[in-house]
Request: fold
Amino acid sequence: MSKNFAVIGVGGYIAPRHLRAIRDTGNRLVAAVDTKDSVGVLDQYSYDVKFFTEIERFDRHLEKLRRGPEEDRIHFVSVCSPNYLHDSHCRLALRVGADVICEKPLVINPWNLDALEEIEAETKRRVHTILQLRVHPGLIQLRESLQSSKDIHDVELTYITSRGPWYHVSWKGNHEKSGGVATNIGIHFFDLLIWLFGPVGGIKVYHKDDDKMSGFIELERARVRWFLSVDKNDLPEQAKIGGKTTYRSITVDGKEVEFSEGFTDLHTRVYEETLAGRGFGIKDARPSVELTHDIRSAEISPLDTLPHPLLRK
Amino acid sequence: MSKNFAVIGVGGYIAPRHLRAIRDTGNRLVAAVDTKDSVGVLDQYSYDVKFFTEIERFDRHLEKLRRGPEEDRIHFVSVCSPNYLHDSHCRLALRVGADVICEKPLVINPWNLDALEEIEAETKRRVHTILQLRVHPGLIQLRESLQSSKDIHDVELTYITSRGPWYHVSWKGNHEKSGGVATNIGIHFFDLLIWLFGPVGGIKVYHKDDDKMSGFIELERARVRWFLSVDKNDLPEQAKIGGKTTYRSITVDGKEVEFSEGFTDLHTRVYEETLAGRGFGIKDARPSVELTHDIRSAEISPLDTLPHPLLRK
Amino acid sequence: MSKNFAVIGVGGYIAPRHLRAIRDTGNRLVAAVDTKDSVGVLDQYSYDVKFFTEIERFDRHLEKLRRGPEEDRIHFVSVCSPNYLHDSHCRLALRVGADVICEKPLVINPWNLDALEEIEAETKRRVHTILQLRVHPGLIQLRESLQSSKDIHDVELTYITSRGPWYHVSWKGNHEKSGGVATNIGIHFFDLLIWLFGPVGGIKVYHKDDDKMSGFIELERARVRWFLSVDKNDLPEQAKIGGKTTYRSITVDGKEVEFSEGFTDLHTRVYEETLAGRGFGIKDARPSVELTHDIRSAEISPLDTLPHPLLRK
Amino acid sequence: MSKNFAVIGVGGYIAPRHLRAIRDTGNRLVAAVDTKDSVGVLDQYSYDVKFFTEIERFDRHLEKLRRGPEEDRIHFVSVCSPNYLHDSHCRLALRVGADVICEKPLVINPWNLDALEEIEAETKRRVHTILQLRVHPGLIQLRESLQSSKDIHDVELTYITSRGPWYHVSWKGNHEKSGGVATNIGIHFFDLLIWLFGPVGGIKVYHKDDDKMSGFIELERARVRWFLSVDKNDLPEQAKIGGKTTYRSITVDGKEVEFSEGFTDLHTRVYEETLAGRGFGIKDARPSVELTHDIRSAEISPLDTLPHPLLRK
Reply:
């Protein structure tokens, strides 16, 4: 049976992927909230969406639906608000009897996962998150091939995605609100690496500023050099020449992992899994949340033999 | 020589057409402001755009550029903010020595045009507006064909463009901020009709609510029945069946004016005209601003023989 | 034992009375939230108050305290936010395991009381409101004297309290947010009248605009003509001459009820009663919420023999 | 003749002193703006104040008055907004033909004074600021007594004024918006010291964090050790015991300067001086703005023989 969805943060950048996933999984969007009112995007999905600019009024509406006929209540709340509000918006959803599908990172700080787990238990509702690389066909295949041996691999992760000055003016540039570069643009990759190569042994952080971070991670079956940046000057020459503004590369033992294809509709795939009871929960989200938290709070290590090549330029 | 542009309201719905027009006319976007910080759209145009969330800091930046080298100063400010702020943002631009390209409606109330004209005179800068139907090739042709005779035509204007509940929650649904349906979605058409058929003789308004308005206008060479709505229930059956959410029709003496094609990049065309010194100024904007103001403040007339057919349903 | 309090809306006009009541009843203010950050007033009460400008972060903090040691959890939340947010903020408090002391009007619309009652039942926490005239010594005395007979009294209520143009610009001037004049400035008096003279039989409303409202109420033991206004032009001559900006009068059978004294610290009195288990709950709030809702939605009656004298001027 | 005033930031902490000064110098408050709508304070001064919550609409109103009859135009704008908006709000005032009385610090960064001076010249209007210690009778006397000799004095400035956690959540705790402790709570004292002892020779800064700053200044005729803090733990024991929350001390050659009296209505005194053409202009504001800017950007010096005693605890 078709489910009723409500979306928090519907005016933001990532919301359309959730709107599409709701529609493409055959469900209904019935309510939405955003502090800004520029949400004409809704008209592409439905003309029957109650809209609010204040979370309090949204909460009132969801409470009203909870007390009304079963077919009207909200079954799922999709959370697309700024990172630092995720856990609070998840709580709101659980309290009105809804399950949650929350953008990554589920939370910025690991202890907020504990609180969410307790409220899950109290409300008997579940929080899921979007770890979309785990449903990417090429990466699933890679994982299977890696699982067969216990070898320790050498991995290099490079992700450079240019952002203009607006990025630092927005909540994304505010560490308290976004968690900084490692959390905001890196968490997917860190989750992927742990999923591929096992739990974290130790970390080093060599560089940390508003634009870029770089470090080393020892995983059960990999030694990872990573470099993340939103500064276009970090793009490799070949990317610049080609007019590319994003460069993404993962190499395993020097061999490039091919995963540039297959990114379409990963949100929809995660929705499908979640609706089928195979979603990613708090337990799944925890390792990468802990890792990024540790990276954020780590002391800077002096450069040794381990850094990512871009740091040694 | 390439001009420097700044955009006010860069996070809103209509801003991308201005961003595209700036780029496609070979100019540079160098600064932008929006009260909301979700403006990743900028990265599609340039990575060198100073961004602000407060109009005061934007003003400081423009003042600084005004006092710096000539090649750095802002030549044009594009105003894409909510309607009720247009004139204030135009003033800001004129005061820092820039010309203006302002979204329609230039202002909600005609007396604000007087103030803008005076500041134009004081600052020697010009305010232009977007009256894009006047650069539509099919409509230019229609105008020429009509110009040849003094006949009085019977015109029917129907524009129904579905909007969900968010519309009424947003500034667009607030009459004080948008001017209401006739101003917000209708002003282009009213400008077009005056441009095609000459000045307004008299008006009647038969219906006026948050969702729709309808009335009659006597122009020098036409008698116009008009109907404007954001309510999807007003769509004609054939549109509903075809899954259309917008219905736009102008008939002249019972014959449909074909203008569904040619809408691409009309903003860019207006920019080209403006940069070539053939833009639409305050004088051009005035008649439709006055007409929509009169419509807004008119008493409701009892239905007589003149109303638009959709009102007689 | 001393209780921990948190205050929602601490930067507003009425908050200091709550801050004082918390202090003067020997309790501790430990957390506060307001969307505006101009809350230096806190320093007059305590230097140990966690402060938030976002309700989501405030909620996170209260949840954290709920999960910590018993002596740290919030026992009471005082709600001083704009009227239309009261019920949502009460829900927030109940959900984190706190009791509530909420400014009047508890809610704008009666059906929101139903939802609050259900959440009270679910959470085993209680919502109380400020009906401070019920603890005014002179009015308690009046009530006792009236209780002795079943006579039907003629009552005239006049309350004129001048407000400048800011009032109509603020949420108080927005009917949806404040409930309008009868609700925002009148509800205390309507509660008082019902408390003194018994339940409502019927009502008439003669006048209703943004500035003033006037009508007639039949109570079990009184016929009430009432007039409420925020327009200084309605002040009686003697008040104007004396430079007064507020005029408050209740007459019973032509005799003035004296209650200008004794207004000091009525909030503190209500807090004392509430802490002693004798507070005013949803049941107490309901009759005046229903009455003001009925007044708001009533048709205007033509003037007959019953109106308040100020309407007949 | 009585002047017309408008106030920017009328809902904030410092605004009432300006409202009082406007009234007590016999002038008229006719317009006000604040982003928050909780401005009932206005009713204590006048019921005829146009109020706005958006600077754009306020600007429209002032422009309208500028174009109307001379007796209606705004003669003075009082700026009480957050520090980082001061210069932008001064510009707004100058552009609508008003003179300005701006709270301290006039600007955070000295280069913004240059821009203001140029706009003063363009508009023929003047910017004044509040340097109220310069009109304090006891300090005027001190200055006269010091002027008679060329001695170099040893000065110790200690100012500790407790603030709760809200301070750091508000704009005051944001260095970019307030300038930090030295600028926000210290600038009066730095202006005073320069005014008493002549221009700055050199500075050292020993300590700098969100709560406190401390350093050394060489002035023409004084060597100053200073300590500024908003942390109540820095209060001297005697203050703590007495329940004081603020400690203010200036000693000259070991002798306490008595200036605890005479603080009443210094804003009104500054208004009187300004209206009489003896106000403090950009030139007067500059030295302390430059000094606090230098302090803000200084490297931390290692502790040597010069620090303030509280640093050596």
Observations:
- Chain A has two domains: 4-129, 133-261+280-311.
- The CA atoms of residues 211 and 302 of chain A lie 19 Å apart.
- The first helix of chain A runs from residue 15 to 24.
